[in-house]
Amino acid sequence: MSRSASYDSLRPYLEDLEGWLTQWNATPVQQRKLYLRIAAIGRDAGEEEEAYQYHVKALRTIPGEDASGEEARKLSVDALKTAFNSPTHFDFEDLTSLDAVQALRNSDPVYFQLLEILTADLLEDFRDFEEEHQNWVEEQELNEPALTRKMRLLTLASLAASSGQSRSLPYGAIAKALQIPSEDVEMWVIDVIRAGLVEGKLSQLNQTFLIHRSTYRVFRENQWREVAGRLDMWRTSLMGVLEVIRREKESMIAQKEQELRQVETKINGNTGGGYRRPQRDTIDVGMD
């Protein structure tokens, strides 16, 4: 049986796995071994993303008191390597929330520094990192072109999220932030849309990227402030709309009342003095 077929035969049972582990009262160690075994089978079958997800599940079974241990360290570094090298993985909050990964801040500070850059920083920060730690990326068997591409896409996503009320980005600003020629801007915008990081369209006439939807990579104090500002703006706009609706409603009611009064006046005018037969000329015919 091929490795791919082996994982395909396993996949139908995975959706019930969590329930079974609960029924079996599996210990964290037992759960971790099972998750890692599934991850290994997935990697052998070429199912990199699914294998990564089970690797992260294994990391979650490590209690806080063991987060600094050698097993936790090795599993954390392996998870980071997989996420860094993956061409489709852009969300790193699933890792930064884990105690075992946080422990790398002390045991493997360079790995943790790179994680922080991929989580929230821009391409220029990654370039500074490479300059500060020359040859480290290659020594750790990380894919430098894949990392650079990932950082360009994440940088563009950050630019889109912070575009403000204009919801647009000039080609020149994109080229500068991504450190690319202006003629390559449209290609990178198409790539970031394909990656699902941003939604929008290109305006070749105005040389701008018009943003329909964007998401912050991480939420920090500045992002909360910006969201609060946008909510206040929307609230003010909504109150203005409601005020216009209220005035229009009052005007409509007043107009209807006026029309009713006019109708009543006409009716009362026709019937108020009682009914009178119309007079007509008569000829007095007499007898001599």
Structure in words:
With 288 residues, this protein is mainly alpha-helical. It has a domain of 160 residues. Helices cover 66% and strands 6% of the residues. The protein contains 15 helices and 3 strands. A 3-stranded antiparallel beta sheet has the order 1-3-2. A hairpin with a 4-residue loop joins strand 2 and strand 3. The relative contact order is 0.06. The C terminus is likely disordered.
Order of strands across the main sheet: 1-3-2
How many strand elements? Answer: 3
Provide mean pLDDT, rounded.
87
Strand content: 5-15%
Distance from N terminus to C terminus (CA atoms, Å) equals 138 Å
Largest sheet: 3 strands, antiparallel
Task: Specify the overall morphology.
Answer: extended
Task: State the helix count.
Answer: 15
Order of helices and strands: HHHHHHHHHHHHEHHEEH
Low-confidence stretches: 282-288
Radius of gyration over C-alpha positions, nearest whole angstrom: 35 Å
Q: Classify the secondary structure makeup into a structural class.
A: mainly alpha
